[in-house]
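Dear all,

This email documents one entry for the complex benchmark we are building for the journal club exercise. For each entry we list the sequence lines for every component of the assembly. Then comes the predicted three-dimensional structure of the complex as a token string, followed by one or two observations. Please use this as the template for your own entries, and keep the labels exactly as they appear.
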Amino acid sequence: MRHLLASPRALLLGPRQGPGRRRRLWTAACRRLGAAARLCLLFIVLAVPRAAAVEPDEMLADPALEARARSISQELRCLVCQNQSIDDSNAALARDLRLIVRERLRAGDSDQAVLAFVEARYGEFALLRPKLNAHTLLLWLAPLLLLVAAAAGVIRRTRAAGHAPAKAAAEPLSSAEQQRLAELIKRGRDAAN
Amino acid sequence: MIIELGHFALILALSVALVQMLLPAWGARVGDARLMAVAPPAALAQLTLLAFAFLALTHAFITSDFSVEVVWANSHTAKPLIYKFSGVWGNHEGSMLLWVLILALFGAAVALFGSNLPDTVRANVLAVQAAIAVAFLVFIVFASSPFDRIPPQPEGRGLNPILQDPALAFHPPFLYGGYVGLSMAFSFAIAALIEGRTDAAWARWVRPWTLAAWMLLTLGIAMGSWWAYYELGWGGWWFWDPVENASFMPWLAATALLHSALVMEKREALKVWTILLAILAFSLSLIGTFLVRSGILTSVHAFAVDPRRGIFILAILTLLIGGALALYAWRAPQLRQGGLFAPISREGSLVLNNVLLTVACATVFIGTLYPLALEAITGAKISVGPPYFNLTFGPLMVPLLLAMPLGPLLAWKRGDLLGAAQRLAAGVGLALLAMLATLVLEWRGPWLAPFGIALGAWVIAGPLCEWGTRVKLLAADRGEVVRRAFGLPRSAYGGMLAHAGLGLTVIGIVATSAWREEQVVILRQGERAAIAGYELSFRGVAPRQGPNYQEVVGLMVVTRDGSPVTELAPSKRTFETPRQTTTEAGIHVGWRGDLYVVLGDEQVAGGWVVRLYFNPLVRLIWLGAIVMALGGLLSLSDRRLRIGVPRRARRAIPQAAE
């Protein structure tokens, strides 16, 4: 690995040499890595799918606020992406949304207010957690309804089945059945011995 | 020439499948043994022809024959050989060919190893398999032929770089093995409905196929998740992406089917339900194929976007699923239900398992398709994302995991809950211990996490207690214990292993969700960063030339308490054809978890964005899946499933109920 890097000297003379020297070394390294530098430009133009996207320059100084911003970001959809939250996407639009979220937070909005703000601008589609309303009532209730229905079905079946065995058990075996039972038991014993 | 032969073999396979669909089914109906006997050789012929077609396409990929459209669109001469090979199924047409090849493989397996099946059952099963094959072969031949020629091109357009990865190369064959393997349960269910008869023997035939499919599906899903983890560049391992859900739903249904077939095999109960589940499991596989292949959901796997084909697959879907369900509605009431049991019993616990798994599966289904349905009906656009699934799916899993250790300790017909609980006392102790240890180690952590860890420990402790009970660990002398340990059937060990595997996965999921650490920093050459006790020193970046890409590699020297640990080289790759970049994370695997480093963009003001993550115990997620699959394999090797008869007890001592 190491031989691939700039020069051993650049590695040795690290950042402790003062900012001026460091910058010189850095430019030297960059020149040497001419191809790499061109690639860097390319990286900025081409979005990498699904790389966690929040960039250092976007982040808020207050860690508590930043943490809130991150958790809100995970609730918002990157509208131009395929199933990505703005926290995951590095599309330009996602970045704009992240900045909006942070701006609102800095202005003192509550989490709910921020989500409402984004929804008002971009529609319900932007919310990864669907709101509970007439449209989504069935969606949110479905798991519960299904569970209740399944439980009811099981209980009904066991009830229905529960009556049958009581009757069957109450009826004594006929003499033919008893004879066959004795035969089976005898055969079973013989086989075991 | 080889391509034309492959094309010809494909069309021939379609005609053979037509014969295999019609003659044996008719033979089974009128009782003509000669007509029924057509099925096995036809199944073998179909496999041979499809294998030839597949090899022909593979040959075109490996020799980079750019006069074939699919090869030109998805391959490149500079691509490493393994990806030329995996490129065969890394595109729509080829992956459909793989789909029918695997289907034919399963059909041939029935033809070869199904001699213990009644003739009519085998004939009907193979006829249904052939019907599925006909549907898909018609689709391939008329709507998505991989053998279309174009004027020869000098160079191909290359495979999507995201797919150029060892794990993703083998993810589709496993997943398709699972999807298509469930067709066996489906075919057996249809055969049972046609015959109007099911019994314990039916369940015994169906179970090994379902088990095999389930294993492949487990591994396939785990592989996909692992790939997402290291390739997508931020250590996420599950996104509730529609395409992931499409593979997860058949898995949930197959898991439920495995358990209900157990009840049917041992106790002849739940017959009608098991048949319905068999139909549903494969239907979900078909729906999964449809969702991925039609491009109806645009997602990460959007390399398969083509709506015209979607309509074709939708027609197949309606025909197969609708037909099967109609047959079910018509014939199922005639099936006799048997096997009564009390609510607290092994059967009862398996019913609970089925209720929870089915509802969970339905929840995923509704969450995945709700936005589509809503938009189609009202035009309103909503998103159903991870927060929804976490909120609904999670709570459904909790009772399931809580009940998991109890079920196997209950007796058939009528169980003793108190007795089972007593035998699990050690398990309760272990779970509490795990919770306490978690609290001590991570006292600041989310308050729910210790419960999650305890739940995972409980699921692992269950099989241990079960084993202890069954070998009479505490009650008998050592010789007896050893004899009993060797006497337990492999299927029992398989079940225990699979349950324990899920416990591992649960712990992995909880730990990595609760205590994941993350840092985003800008590092200049020589600067340091620290995370989770590791110190990382950034030694700069360098370009490197790969076989069909260029990359920028960053070097990070990792130390811990001053002593060197490893060197990581996260990189960013740029592929030429198609022009696209991917990130390659640098991952150090430690026993506490993974140190995960991603190289971000270079900053204008100097320095590079570096993302550092620490994912505690994340490996357990996939290790658990591997253990689950091993459990399945062990169970599959059990004589009872292999040969279809249980081993005779060597002595007449009463064995513990299985």
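Observations: Residues 346-378 of chain B form the longest helix (33 residues). Strands of chain B lie at 517-523, 528-531, 534-545, 549-560, 563-568, 571-575, 580-584, 586-589, 593-602, 608-616.
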